[in-house]
Write a structure and sequence with these properties.
Elements lengths: L1 H35 L5 H15 L14 H10 L8 H18 L3 H4 L2 H18 L4 H21 L6 H14 L4 H18 L3 H23 L3 H9 L9 H9 L1 H22 L7 H10 L2 H5 L9 H11 L8 H6 L6 H26 L2 H5 L10 E2 L9 E2 L1 H16 L5 E3 L6 H5 L22 H10 L4 E5 L8 H10 E4 L5 E6 L1
Parallel strand pairs: 3-4
Antiparallel strand pairs: 1-2, 4-6, 5-6
Helix pairs in contact: 1-4, 1-6, 2-3, 3-10, 4-6, 4-7, 6-16, 6-18, 7-8, 7-9, 7-16, 8-10, 9-10, 9-14, 12-13, 13-16, 13-18, 14-16
Length: 510
């Protein structure tokens, strides 16, 4: 009878934690939706909008346009393209992804919920990029997929003797998802998982086979879903290889932005605490794997032109696993009785860890409230943003005079020249979806050599710009960011400026 009562208590406790987690994510999601109503950032969200529009028009990545976006993002946007999406859809999609990640981790049941501190820290971790950046983005999505794979494989290491079909199914699924993540996180994390398995665990052949089978299934399954040739997937990997080396400019960027600086400094403090913590406890199985994961997860810090708060999820998650050991049993009664056996020193360390995680979340919350990310990917950030858009693609967006003026002028040009072939410049790629204009064939989604297309393909990009034979070119005022000089010279020779617009630079073919 006592065991039966204990099982009932455990189930109610577990389900209570599960629904509490969903409620916390829902609250953060609502905050994110509220924050995203204010200001628009063009350099990240514009190409995502254009990519979704292209997919809705039936275009195939690689075949119809140059693509370096990871498979995971394209698949999600392909599904979104089946709807009547607007700009707010990308924040709703981000909230949905966070819920899916939480559900996958919660599928471990008692294991995941056994340590309340770890469970709560995990919710904080997966909500940091959501509340800071708001909309879906490939670096955020890649961190989530890496977390799923890391946690699944880590539990594999701890429970070699107790694996069942669900354990293998999780590992297969996690591998299939990870391979679709961004190049600088998918490959290192998977190689580490395979390498560590070879040298450090039993049943290694089965584990490696399951990882490889899952990865191959992910690659071929998702490329078939998108009708995407495999060679174009390989291009998306090779086109950005030049950014695999650590950049001095990236390091400067870490220390330049307020949120990035806070995140980096606090992460360093956590690593120092980790070193002290591990010196005062017995090394547990799987610790070395997590330490190596923390090390390789620093790669996106130095190779992504992105906020470091978007790349901090995986190292924070691995650190949480190290600081918060979980129950090694699956029985309900033992979970009820199990308590972390921390010494006073470890309790003190854990308090520091929790305080730092909470502070990083508050930094992200403040950045989301101030729309700090939008300042960095402007130039549409305006203060005050006292104009609200009514109707259309950007319905309910609060913005300023400049961006609302740009939207008005774009729609005026489309209305006055309905049959003209339009080109939208940097940060204005959303214009194709806004005006229901077919996006240009054979060109990159945005202008950033080495990121949106290979630096070796500049000649091809210039050639395709000319072959598209545009009638009207529309730029944000004085914005030609990262466009090749050959394209700019071609514009000077073959187009003349129309000086009838206040917020955009408009050129018509001679």
């Amino acid at each position: 009878m006592n065991r039966h009562v204990a099982n009932i208590l455990i189930r109610s406790k577990k389900y209570g934690k599960f629904f509490l987690g969903l409620c916390l994510i829902a609250v953060v999601g609502c905050l994110s939706l509220r924050f995203t109503m204010n200001q628009f950032g063009g350099y990240d969200l514009s190409p995502v909008i254009d990519l979704t529009w292209r997919l809705q028009c039936g275009e195939v990545p690689g075949r119809d346009f140059i693509n370096t976006m990871p498979l995971a993002l394209i698949v999600l946007l392909k599904i979104l393209s089946w709807t009547n999406f607007t700009w707010i859809s990308f924040t709703l999609l981000s909230v949905f992804v966070v819920i899916l990640v939480y559900l996958f981790l919660a599928s471990f049941n008692e294991i995941f919920f056994s340590n309340s501190i770890f469970y709560l820290l995990t919710i904080v971790i997966i909500c940091i990029p959501l509340v800071f950046t708001n909309h879906i983005w490939h670096s955020i999505l890649s961190q989530y997929l890496a977390i799923i794979f890391t946690y699944t494989l880590y539990q594999h290491y701890l429970r070699t003797a107790n694996l069942n079909w669900t354990s293998w199914a999780r590992l297969f699924t996690a591998s299939a998802l990870l391979v679709t993540a961004k190049q600088n996180i998918a490959l290192p994390v998977m190689v580490l998982g395979i390498g560590y398995t070879i040298y450090n665990r039993e049943r290694k052949a089965m584990t490696i086979n399951m990882i490889c089978l899952g990865a191959l299934t992910g690659v071929f399954g998702f490329t078939q879903f998108l009708h995407m040739p495999l060679k174009d997937l390989l291009y998306s990997y090779s086109a950005v290889t030049g950014r695999a080396k650590i950049s001095k400019q990236m390091i400067i960027e870490i220390l330049a932005g307020e949120s990035s600086r806070f995140a980096f400094i606090l992460l360093c403090i956590l690593l120092i605490n980790l070193y002290i913590y591990l010196r005062n406890k017995e090394t547990m199985k799987g610790t070395n794997y997590l330490l190596l994961t923390i090390f390789i997860s620093s790669l996106p810090f130095f190779t992504d032109w992105d906020s470091k708060l978007n790349n901090i999820s995986l190292p924070l998650f691995a650190l949480a696993l190290l600081f918060c050991p979980q129950s090694g049993t699956k029985t309900a009664l033992n979970v009820l009785e199990w308590k972390p056996n921390y010494s006073s020193f470890h309790n003190y360390t854990l308090k520091i860890v929790v305080a730092i995680y909470v502070f990083i979340f508050l930094v992200a919350l403040r950045g989301g409230y101030l729309r700090e990310r939008m300042k960095g990917v402007g130039p549409f950030y305006e203060n005050p943003s006292n104009i609200q858009i009514h109707g259309g693609f950007f319905d309910k967006l609060r913005t300023g005079l400049v961006f609302s003026g740009i939207l008005y002028e774009i729609q005026s040009i489309k209305r006055d020249s309905p049959n003209s072939k339009l080109f939208f410049g940097p940060r204005l790629e959303f214009g194709y979806a806004l005006t229901l204009t077919h996006s240009p064939y054979g060109m990159p989604l945005w202008w950033h050599p080495g990121s949106s297309y290979s630096v070796n393909d500049e000649g091809k990009v210039v050639s395709m710009f000319m072959e598209n034979n545009f009638d009207i070119l529309i730029f944000s005022r004085h914005d030609r960011t990262r466009m090749p000089s050959s394209v700019l010279r071609h514009i000077e020779r073959n187009f003349h400026e129309i000086n009838d617009y206040q917020f955009t630079d408009v050129y018509q073919k001679n």
